[in-house]
Amino acid sequence: MLRVKAICLARCVHLAASWGKLADKYLSKRTKKSRTSLLNYRTSRNNNSKIMERKELPGILVSEIGGPFGVLESHVEFLKMHFNLITMKEFQKSKEELREKIKSVFVFEGRPLVDRELLESLPDLRVIGNSGVGVNHLDLKLISSFGVKITNTPHAVSDSTADIGMALMLASARRLVEGCDIAMSPQTKHFCVDWLGVEVTRATLGIIGMGNIGYKVAKRAKAFDMNILYHNRNRRKEEEQVVGATYCKTIEELLQRSDFVMLVVNLTSETHKLIGKKELGLMKPTAILINICRGAVVDQDALAEALQNGIIKAAALDVTDPEPLPRDHQLLQLKNVIITPHIGTATVQALRMMTEEAVENILAVLNDRPIPSEVYPN
Ligand SMILES: O=C(O)[C@H](O)CO
Question: pLDDT at residue 16 above 60?
Fold first, then answer.
């Protein structure tokens, strides 16, 4: 009997051990797979580093290291694994020595400025890698006329920007900033608010621009049981079905039917002041406008007027034109506006992925591989 018990116990232990091993194997496989981060690049570069000297790496021009418009310090090591990193300051100092080394420019927050002068001083330049999706700060035609490719990072930015869209919609609907002011004010003795918010649940959200970000907004809105309308140059039937969205052929129809209107388009000559007096006039007086793309998509004077006159109820903006607005701008005086400082991609994860996506694009151009995200002039 004792022997049987011992055998049973041994079997159980063996079984548990093999499950453990299996689980370990499975988990490490999953962890490795989900880690599509700097680490992957690091590993592959480390293997190559034995055969590749730093001086052989292609030169990449960056604005500066650190500072609000510079490459994040934590990304420098990663960039240096693939490139010979040259800052604008270094380039200005030794132009003649460096000009032929620079094959790419890494543009972050619109810096460095890529103008004719810069393009003319870089004879071997092959690609402008924009870190971010919006390329309105780049003269696409001019850059292309130099035979230089342009790339952007539409995938890296989509989740964080969609999150900001949802955050602004919720904050505006529930008057979060006003509530926060009351709760935190030293003057507050009792919590007594004389206003009510509105719910986003089951309300109608109209999304103008169903690209990567617009689609991620729709996915999130679906979880709020929202009735989703969208307008886009091209109808996206597959995505429509996934999120249960309804296509509006015209912006006018979308504006008339929506409780919340979210702007998620690229800024181009066609979308400049897309939302003006006429469009605001079509919206419901209870509607809220949310802008997470570019400030110039909205006629801000018309918006301020509409907000003052009750044409629409409120606005929540992560972007303005210019940024920041002049301190005496009328939009800053209004209670029914919330403005955040263009923080759609301001997360550790998004910035890391933007750098990775930009590097992937640049390396594809430099190695004559298919380019994941190329931008073409209109
Ligand atoms: O364009 C983008 O991706 C964001 O606005 C960050 O610049």
Answer: no
Give me the pLDDT at residue 56, please: 79
The owner of tokens 């004719």 is 116
Pocket test for ligand 1, best of 63, 161, 212 (most atoms within 8 A of CB): 161
Q: Dump pLDDT digits (tens) for 40-50.
A: 444 344 444 44
Binding site membership of 132 for ligand 1 (Cβ less than 6 Å): yes
- Give backbone dihedrals phi and psi of 298, rounded to 5 degrees, phi first: -115, 140
- Sheet of strand 337-339, all strands in order from the earlier edge strand to the far edge: 245-247, 227-231, 204-208, 260-263, 288-291, 314-317, 337-339
**Mean pLDDT value across residues 32-43:** 38
- 295 CB under 6 A from ligand 1? no
ipTM: 0.96
Q: Output the furthest CA–CA distance in the chain (Å, rounded).
A: 91
Residue 324, C-beta contacts closer than 8 angstroms, at least 6 positions apart:
341
pLDDT digits (tens, 9 = 90+) for 250-272: 999 999 999 999 999 999 999 99
Report yes or no: 109 and 325 within 8 Å, Cβ to Cβ.
Answer: no
From the CA atom positions of the chain, what is the Rg in Å? Answer: 26
pTM: 0.86
59-155+349-366 placed in CATH 3.30.70.860? no
**Intervals of CATH 3.40.50.720 along the chain:** 59-155+349-366, 157-339
Q: What is the distance in A from the centroid of ligand 1 to the CA of 28?
A: 34
Nearest-angstrom CA–CA distance, 336 and 328: 16
Q: What are phi and psi of 146, to 5 degrees?
A: -95, 5
Query: Would you state the CATH architecture of domain 157-339?
Result: 3-Layer(aba) Sandwich (3.40)
